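Subject: sequence -> structure tokens, single chain

Hey, anyone have a minute? Need the predicted structure for the following. Not urgent.
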Amino acid sequence: MFKTTSSIARAGIIAGLYVVLTLITFPIASSEIQFRPSEGLTLLPLIFPEAIVGVFVGCVLSNLITGCVVLDIIFGGLITLISAILTYFVGKLIKSMPLKIIIGGIFPVLLNAFLLPVIWYYAYYESSYIYVIQVVFLLVSQSISVYAVGTPTILLMNRLLK
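Reply:
Had a minute. Here:
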């Protein structure tokens, strides 16, 4: 994964960008109903393996800085890590960039939408009836972040690599 100094630097830059994008949209980037444009960076593992570490570290740092509780910091970060790993494998297995983006984006959208409300239920003692509302909102907000923010980002990065 980290074969060169530039790949280490790239992971750090991605982590930093994730944190900055989260902080400039705080508090809506970190609440029961959240919108995180930084989640658009979760498509970067399609072309950069080191982005797996970058988005994971960025998510953990963002959750730490914005005052999330320990369960949310740990498990929210793990959701991002698992999503990034799955997205990376999509990038390795599929050749068509549009198809990579569509399928690769499914993981951060669905895993966050269905698992974050469970974490929030236990971490913040929210009532369970809010789960469906949070899932629906996260499906929409994650889709916007991943596809509307992530698609132009990944296409630009892919073009710069050629």
